Amino acid sequence: MAHPTSVEERYDLITRSLQEVLGGDSIKAILTEGRTPKCYWGTAPTGRPHIGYFVPLTKIADFLRADVEVTILLADVHAFLDNLKAPLELVEHRTKYYEFVLRAVFESLSIPVDKLRFVQGSSYQLTREYNMDNYRLCATVTEHDAKKAGAEVVKQVESPLLSGLLYPGLQALDEQYLDCDFQFGGVDQRKIFTFAELYLPRLGYRKRAHLMNSMVPGLQGTKMSSSDPNSKIDFLDPPNVVRQKIKKAFCEPGNIAENGVLAFIKTVLIPISKVRLERLQAEKEGGAQSDGKKSFTLEGAPEGTVFSVPRGEQYGGPTHYQNYEDLEAAFAKEEIHPGDLKQAVTNAIVELLDPIQKAFQENEEWKKITDLAYPPEVKEVKKKKEKVYHPPPPGKGKNATAAPSTEGNGTAAQPKAAPAANTEMSAPPS
């Protein structure tokens, strides 16, 4: 696919592979007017980012190819407000860590970072104007609406803090203060997006469009979470750890409904593979030079292949697929063994992470920030309660001696007389 120029081509590139688009007509109108659309994507620097981030970052590559101006919000204030997931003293370090990771990922995907704008939330969220708008919003929004908006994003606890109710309103205001035309995020953000569409106009601000991608299941088939190390792969996990985690991943033969391995192929590997093929095609047509990286295929794969699965010759040799649908259908029919699929995914992930990990090893500042942002947990060792010896009072205790005699002072107690022996039997009761 050559660099898009028409309105339809650019719009298709902006919206392809998304789960849902709200307000797409406003984006089309901007493109028709000849203006450059502006987008913002935000991430709260809490837990360590994982390879699920490839999903939004690959989509951001589409935005940039469609000449969209992209702002990446490093939402440090949001990170603190979200039920105190990130202690305040760590937020600043984690914000820097996230920027290091995101820049390295963009560079590994050959996305020019000079077209991106990184903004730290606290740089404008602590201003007088922003806080006055926040107060105006608080005077308009009901507790019910604020709680409902954050239900899928803000951590739900038995006794929620007020900070969780502020979270959706701040994210809505970010659209105005970052001057965007549309906000991009996961489908789990939908309630916050519709909240923003409802309340921003009530403050006199325009309604923005919202683009949502699908969520990536974790390796066990459930949600991928930064707080669950077994559900995700960290960007800095070495190859042996990647292999161990993929080996343990849930991948039942024929099961396509709850399969984190298949989901990762669909949402990350094949989209990246398509982008690489498009770059190679553009290079052949005299367009921009590609990075020379092939899609996730094996030698001898037919032209147009986006994913290959290795397989021993005794089992028919490797298989090649030009789209995800064919791959999924083959797995459902059990034509692909889970072990072969896991090997293909492991090889692809190791290849994706290699340039990121090399960048980490070559950057001493990044290493220092990592230690500051995510210090090792210190487990509190419970000390055994020390027994303190308290001597018994005089005359007490198992080793106590008999009390000394006080005879001669006129006050000694006289010993009790022993009872006389009864030589007669008691008369029987009458």
Automatic annotation (TrEMBL):
<keyword id="KW-0648">Protein biosynthesis</keyword>
<dbReference type="GO" id="GO:0006437">
    <property type="term" value="P:tyrosyl-tRNA aminoacylation"/>
</dbReference>
<keyword id="KW-0539">Nucleus</keyword>
<protein>
    <recommendedName>
        <fullName>Tyrosine--tRNA ligase</fullName>
        <ecNumber>6.1.1.1</ecNumber>
    </recommendedName>
</protein>
<dbReference type="InterPro" id="IPR050489">
    <property type="entry name" value="Tyr-tRNA_synthase"/>
</dbReference>
<keyword id="KW-0436">Ligase</keyword>
<keyword id="KW-0030">Aminoacyl-tRNA synthetase</keyword>
<feature type="compositionally biased region" description="Low complexity">
    <location>
        <begin position="412"/>
        <end position="421"/>
    </location>
</feature>
<comment type="similarity">
    <text>Belongs to the class-I aminoacyl-tRNA synthetase family.</text>
</comment>
<dbReference type="GO" id="GO:0004831">
    <property type="term" value="F:tyrosine-tRNA ligase activity"/>
</dbReference>
<dbReference type="Pfam" id="PF00579">
    <property type="entry name" value="tRNA-synt_1b"/>
</dbReference>
<dbReference type="InterPro" id="IPR014729">
    <property type="entry name" value="Rossmann-like_a/b/a_fold"/>
</dbReference>
<feature type="compositionally biased region" description="Polar residues">
    <location>
        <begin position="402"/>
        <end position="411"/>
    </location>
</feature>
<dbReference type="InterPro" id="IPR002305">
    <property type="entry name" value="aa-tRNA-synth_Ic"/>
</dbReference>
<dbReference type="InterPro" id="IPR023617">
    <property type="entry name" value="Tyr-tRNA-ligase_arc/euk-type"/>
</dbReference>
<dbReference type="GO" id="GO:0005634">
    <property type="term" value="C:nucleus"/>
</dbReference>
<dbReference type="GO" id="GO:0005737">
    <property type="term" value="C:cytoplasm"/>
</dbReference>
<dbReference type="InterPro" id="IPR002307">
    <property type="entry name" value="Tyr-tRNA-ligase"/>
</dbReference>
<feature type="region of interest" description="Disordered">
    <location>
        <begin position="376"/>
        <end position="430"/>
    </location>
</feature>
<keyword id="KW-0963">Cytoplasm</keyword>
<dbReference type="GO" id="GO:0005524">
    <property type="term" value="F:ATP binding"/>
</dbReference>
<keyword id="KW-0547">Nucleotide-binding</keyword>
<keyword id="KW-0067">ATP-binding</keyword>
